[in-house]
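Format is chain and fold; as here:
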Amino acid sequence: MTIHEAQQQVDIWIRQYGGGYFGELTNLGILTEEVGEMARWMVRKYGDQNLKPSEQQTDIKAAIEDEMTDILWVLLCLANQMEIDLTTSLEKNILKKTTRDHNRHINEQAK
């Protein structure tokens, strides 16, 4: 699935099953919440926090994957609402980073 197709699929789902989009600020709040949920699992897997007893049986990789997908979903919703073509935006962003940073990280690693 391409990014464009993903935006279309989300739009179809929202219109068919979701009852319409939440407001942009609501979706921003949801996005923040989902990032926090992903951070919580990342801290338990890669950071210094231990799992709670109730989390011992959790597949942490699957939990992180689920939260990343929730984040993507909300980003796709926001892009649709704001009429942003994420394919074009990503292409522009890669070009910007390539132009600006083409030597930056390579030179930092050599230090």
